[in-house]
Amino acid sequence: MPTKKTRRALARRAQPSKRAARPASGEVVVSVKLGAAGSEPVLGAAYMMMDRAYALVEPGAAGALRVTLRPKGARGAAELAALKTSFEDELAAQRLRWAVARNNAPVREYVAENAIALAGEFAARAQAAPEPAAEQLTDDQRAEIERLIAEVETEISEMNREKKLPDPNGATRSWEAAQDAEKGRGAE
Fold first, then answer.
1. Where residue 85 sits, what CATH number does that domain have?
2. How does strand 28-33 pair with strand 53-59?
3. Does pTM surpass 0.70?
């Protein structure tokens, strides 16, 4: 959709275009009165036509915009009439979209305000919520944990004494030993 800069540029163009008042052959010219809707629906409709035609929007008579459509494809009378009808249909759809958008602006503002307020409440709750207390272990549970730790430490110290590290996949075997094991000789 057009920006404020585009709308200001359209408003500043006080002089009518130096183009001829009649369209060149193969072009469609539509004059659209702006009214209360403003220029957004006209610019939106012209933009939506860009896949089928080149669109030039310029100031027309007082309170109107002049839209010139030059088709990208065939330029016969039937195609030009279809292009004009298509533009007018798109203009009606754009006017409806912009009217709905204007009418729904208070609803969108209300939803956004409530979302921000709700996010603020969640943030306040998260900051105010106390940390949950750590679970207290019973004496039996502590004793079991200490027994398991001691058992693992004993296994590690035995492995260190024997200089034997676990090798379930045989990664430390030599190539010959791996080939013998693979052939079923059982040598490691």
1. 3.30.70
2. unpaired
3. no
